[in-house]
C-alpha cells in the first residue's frame, strides 16, 4: 500500500483516479475470530456440513467482513477512518474459504467516481471493488470520504 493522502496530494484527486490496491487472504481462523468479535456465529461461516445443507459451495466469509475489508481501501487511502462519511454495498457473491492453510484471496481496490466541493470541504465519491476467484463479491460498493485539507 502507498502512503495516505496529504493535503497536497488530496488537492490533485480527480475523477478516474485509482486508489491503491491490495490483497487479503482469509482463512477459517479469520472467520472464527470475526464471528467472535461480531457476534455472528452462524455455522455457515465455520461448518462445511451446515454450509452445504444451506446450498452453499462451502463455508463462506461473513458479508460484513468482506465489506469491512473493502473499507480498508478507503482508510488506507485517506489515512483517517473518520474521513468516511458514508459507505454502502450489496453482497453479490460469497467468498468461499476452504479448510486449508491457503485460505481465500480477496483483491481490493477502488476508483474515484466524483469529486465535490461544498463550503470549502472537498469530498470524493469512491466506487470500491472486492474480487474473489475472478468475480466481484460486492455490488454497488460506493463510499463518500472527506479529503484531507
Mean pLDDT across the residues is 96
Enumerate the spans where pLDDT stays under 50 for 5 or more consecutive residues: none
CATH architecture: Roll
How many E strands? 6
CATH superfamily: Hotdog Thioesterase
Task: Work out the radius of gyration.
Answer: 17 Å
Helix/strand order, N-terminal first: HEHHHEEEEE
Largest sheet features: 6 strands, antiparallel
- Which structural category fits the helices and strands? alpha+beta
CATH class: Alpha Beta
Number of helices: 4
Helix content: 10-25%
Tell me the domain tally. 1
Domain MaoC-like: 23-120
Pfam families: MaoC_dehydratas
Protein name: MaoC family dehydratase
Family: Belongs to the enoyl-CoA hydratase/isomerase family.
Describe the fold and architecture.
There is one protein chain. The protein is of the alpha+beta class and 149 residues long. It has a single domain, classed as Roll (Thiol Ester Dehydrase, Chain A), CATH 3.10.129.10. It contains four helices and six strands; from the N terminus they run αβαααβββββ. The protein has helices at residues 7-10, 28-38, 48-53, 63-78, and strands at residues 22-26, 84-91, 104-118, 121-132, 135-136, 138-146. Strands 1, 2, 3, 4, 5 and 6 form a six-stranded antiparallel beta sheet that branches. A hairpin with a 2-residue loop joins β3 (104-118) and β4 (121-132). The chain starts with 6 loop residues before the first helix and ends with a strand.
